[in-house]
Design a protein that fits this description.
By secondary structure, the chain is of the alpha/beta class. It folds into two domains: 106 residues, Ntrc-like two-domain protein (Rossmann fold); 227 residues, Rossmann fold (3-Layer(aba) Sandwich). It has 13 helices and 13 strands. The protein is elongated and about 75 Å long.
């Protein structure tokens, strides 16, 4: 995918700095102009997908024939803003990564759907599940994602919990998963660009998609919608590993996710009730059907901890009980102590 973008601003210093920052994004082909005349001449010869322009570049109202997305690049001192009231707008002098996100978010909705080669083979999907609540799935998933990222892999974290408990390390700022679900329904939206616009970089270099913070949003998502989004993420092939943090229980969405996964990490905590839950889960035909791609992580381990051992699957980790340490510190400690075996996680791919 190649997006041709013209940057037009009378400040040569700023536009060159902006151009240099945007050059790091492979899908952008950047062209720079510092006057209304050179921009107009370029538009007569070249078809641009996006024109990012200073509203004060010309005292006359600029027109953009054939341009899919003209974007007004403004500052608090900009005049002429009333001329472009209906245009998309991006504020100057913010982080270039934020400018990039805003541009492609707007462009994704206007680019139209493009069928690209299916790159699912580039991405391994590892899901974290427990039949018992409070087993530490999210902690284990975040620690595993951090470990894979530290080893040089590009990792994308997605929460499919009813209420996303990873918000304490991956802040909620705007719709992520909900936006992707809606985009999957609209043939006029370029999903890959939309994905890149909503993915954010979190702790330890792990990228993440913001999950659900309202039960109504979770309840409104069908199994088919969740499946389509996960399939589309994999087809884009933008990450080496897709880490999915799941809800406890075996509702239709969870069963679908386990069926799609390359590796299913089962997280268990010690105790009589969690052991009984694990025993019941291990006895289900569904668990037996997918047992070959499962591995076990024992969480909250202490010298006298007892785990059920109900599942006859490889052990992928023993996480110590870190007490009441803040979650970020726990995640870093698990990663630094190597308490999750990354090689076992990778063996799920057939």
């Amino acid at each position: 995918m190649n997006i041709s973008i013209a940057l037009a601003d009378s400040s040569k210093t700023y536009v060159e700095r902006l151009s240099e920052g945007l050059q790091q994004y492979d899908e952008l082909a950047i062209h720079v102009y510092t006057s209304e005349r050179t921009l107009r001449e370029a538009m007569e010869k070249t078809r641009f997908d996006v024109v990012l322009f200073d509203p004060d570049l010309s005292e006359e109202t600029l027109s953009f024939p054939g341009v899919k997305l003209p974007v007004c690049l403004y500052s608090d001192e900009s005049g002429n803003m009333e001329r472009y009231a209906e245009f998309a707008k991006v504020q100057k002098y913010q982080r270039i990564s934020h400018i990039y996100k805003e541009i492609i978010r707007e462009y994704a909705d206007k680019a139209g759907y493009t069928v690209h080669a299916d790159r699912s083979g580039n991405t391994e999907m590892i899901v974290f599940y427990s039949p018992a609540g409070g087993a530490g799935k999210t902690t284990a998933a975040l620690a595993a994602a951090s470990q894979l990222a530290a080893q040089g892999s590009k990792v994308l974290f997605v929460s499919l919990e009813q209420l996303n408990s990873s918000f304490c390390v991956h802040p909620k700022k705007e719709d992520g998963l909900i936006a992707l679900i809606e985009s999957s329904k609209d043939a006029g939206v370029n999903f890959e660009l939309k994905l890149k616009s909503v993915a954010k970089q979190g702790m330890n270099g792990v990228y993440y998609i913001e999950g659900f913070d309202r039960l109504a949003d979770y309840d409104a998502v069908s199994e088919e919608e969740a499946k389509t989004v996960l399939q589309n993420i994999r087809k884009c092939g933008i990450c080496d590993f897709l880490i999915v943090d799941m809800e406890s229980g075996l509702n239709p969405v969870n069963r679908m996710v386990i069926q799609m996964a390359d590796r299913v990490m089962i997280v268990e905590k010690p105790g009589e009730l969690p052991a009984e839950k694990m025993r019941l889960f291990a006895g289900q035909a569904f668990a037996n059907e997918h047992q070959q791609k499962m591995a076990l992580i024992c969480n909250f381990a202490e010298s006298n901890s007892r785990f059920s051992r109900a599942l006859d699957v490889p052990a992928a980790g023993m996480i110590h009980n870190y007490g009441n340490l803040p979650l970020k510190q726990v995640i870093d400690a698990i990663r630094k102590n190597g308490e999750i075996d990354a090689d076992i996680m990778r063996k799920g791919r057939k």
